[in-house]
Design brief:
The structure is a homodimer.
Chain A lengths: L3 E9 L3 E3 L18 H4 L2 H6 L9 H8 L4 E7 H4 L24 E5 L7 E2 L5 E5 L3 H11 L4 E6 L1 H9 L5 E7 L7 E2 L11 E8 L4 E7 L1
Parallel strand pairs in A: 1-7, 1-8, 3-4, 3-7, 4-6
Antiparallel strand pairs in A: 2-9, 5-6, 8-11, 10-11
């Protein structure tokens, strides 16, 4: 069966996966950009932006792994928009412009229904109101034998972790302090849920760790 | 004025500074030994045990830094003994044998008074019941111009952090999952308390980070 995978999820030194007070100028919350310094300069990330150059090496390898064999994505509504509550601005089609970097179906978990949006380059945003299990079922069907990548945010990761539905999770622990924001692991006993840390390596920018559910 | 410094405090991937259920066989709590794999094989640590050999390099440099210019230590009572409540076993003189690795006065914070214990090699355990400020005053006086090192545990670190009394803090984030235990930073907004991350580097065993209060 298609696996549910998390890749490139960054965690601050003090345990936060996103900053507080997300808005249009701060899609990752205040201070949240510091979580992703490890990947901005990688060759794979630069290519996703349509640019040339960028660095190869371990950080880049981890970014590239996150794109391998992915047939669908699941993201939380706050990953799609800074708006909360009912959809007011139907012109908003995500942070990524006309050609988002997914190129596969993306299932957006929300409490507020909205018709699917087909973008250039193969990304289609489907809005799912039936909860995390339904979203995973739909994503698996759409993935056509490939895996499903879970993008975040923190709240959605916590729900899927607690439901023991994540098969593999790559975290990048970074030397940044956020002070407040969304805490990833508080109250979640990973070993009890079956997760083990199976792989790790460090670069100047991050400690990379891969957890798997056995 | 003598600074209050923390060195070599290890933090699991999921944010724990010690495992749960400390007892005589598990001075660092269940699973807590995994927090310290990064330092066991260093030359400085091996020397503290009276052994030869051990590895040099960045991990070793951090262990060595923690011993420089230290005139006194402060530790929590649980760092000294697995016993809780009133002192019943007056023969217990710490985990470290007759010649503990401190070689300076050590102020042990406790709710239960006990006469000081003078050990071989210069370590003297003083038991302080008047709280964290009093312990710091006493330690500074004893340190004779040198700095004071705060050893832990987690609860004591949290108290000194929240009181904004720690000047410098070296953390080693390690690729281990504890699942439960004592969480170091939950509810503590480090930047708001004046702490900034000023230095970091990674080794195969840990991400080393130095926080300072500015």
């Amino acid at each position: 069966m298609a696996r549910l995978r998390v890749h490139g999820f960054a965690l601050s030194l003090d345990g936060f996966g996103a900053g507080p007070a997300q808005n249009l100028d701060h899609p990752l919350g205040l201070g949240g950009m510091a979580l992703h310094n490890w990947q901005f300069n990688t060759r794979t990330f630069q290519r996703m932006l349509g640019l040339k150059g960028g660095e190869t090496g371990i950080d880049d390898d981890f970014v590239a792994r996150g794109l391998e064999n992915i047939g669908a994505w699941i993201i939380g509504r706050n990953m799609f928009t800074p708006e909360r509550g009912p959809w007011l601005d139907e012109n908003w089609k995500g942070w990524w412009g006309d050609n988002p970097p997914y190129h596969v179906p993306v299932f957006v978990l929300t409490h507020h229904p909205r018709p699917a949006i087909e973008m250039e380059g193969g990304s289609v945003f489907h809005f799912v109101t039936e909860g995390i299990h339904a979203a995973l079922d739909m994503a698996r069907q759409s993935a056509q034998g490939k895996d499903v990548r879970l993008g975040g945010g923190v709240s959605l990761l916590r729900q899927y972790l607690e439901a023991q539905l994540i098969d593999e999770m790559h975290l990048a622990v970074v030397p940044a302090l956020l002070g407040k924001g969304e805490h990833l692991f508080t109250g979640i006993a990973l070993p009890k849920l079956g997760y083990q840390q199976l792989e790790h390596c460090t670069t100047p920018n991050a400690m990379h760790v891969v957890l798997k559910r056995l």
